[in-house]
Write a structure and sequence with these properties.
Layout: H1 21-35, H2 53-64, H3 76-79, H4 84-202
Family: Belongs to the SPF27 family.
InterPro entries: SPF27
Pfam families: BCAS2 (PF05700)
């Protein structure tokens, strides 16, 4: 017959702590706390209810009751009685507002989804319009340059014709002047000859 035996194969463990360790640790904590600044005390432990005066009144009454429940119960069903017609109108109004909000949300989602493509299309139209305007501008500049070139050529032709006329007139005047000079020289020679002949006759 076998007996149940417990076999312990682990060594006993004893955590040896120095007797002065706790005092040493406390001294370190005290030194650390001396270097820390003490927090400012709260100005008032009473909470502030700036947004609602009802909460402030309820808190004051709760303090006066020392945290106990109200002795008088309030029947809110008697206070907040709603006419069924008004209730239906309110529900209908809320449904309209809810549907309006739903449609607005759908529009925002659609705008967020398609706004980038819409802007790309708009930018493409602007670029196309800009390109067309630039093409028209270049065509107009070319037309202006052609008009100026034609005008310059026409002016040069007229100037050449006028210069030709003036040159011909100048040459004609020069020839006439030469003929006059020759005539004057011939007359002077003839006068000298006549003078010489008349002098010889007198002698």
């Amino acid at each position: 017959m076998q007996t149940n035996q417990v076999v312990l194969d682990s060594l006993p463990y004893i955590d040896q702590v120095h007797p002065d360790y706790e005092a040493y640790a406390m001294s370190l904590i005290e030194e650390e706390m001396k270097t820390m600044e003490a927090p400012d005390p709260p100005s008032s432990s009473e909470p502030k209810f700036n947004s609602s005066s009802i909460n402030h009144v309820e808190y004051q009454q709760l303090v006066e009751r020392n945290g106990e429940a109200r002795s008088d119960t309030v029947d809110f069903t008697k206070i907040h009685t709603v006419d069924p017609k008004d209730k239906k109108k309110a529900i209908h109004s809320f449904k309209i507002q809810l549907e309006h909000e739903r449609i607005r949300q759908v529009n925002l989602e659609l705008e967020g989804e398609f706004s980038s493509s819409i802007w790309k299309h708009h930018v493409g139209l602007l670029e196309k319009s800009t390109s067309e305007v630039e093409t028209q501008l270049q065509q107009q500049l070319m037309q202006v340059d052609q008009i100026n070139a034609n005008r310059k050529e026409s002016q040069e032709k007229r100037a050449m014709v006028e210069l030709g006329k003036l040159g011909y007139r100048y040459e004609e005047l020069v020839r006439k002047n030469q003929h006059l000079n020759k005539g004057i020289v011939a007359l002077e020679n003839e006068v000298e000859t006549l003078r010489a002949q008349s002098g010889s006759v007198v002698n």
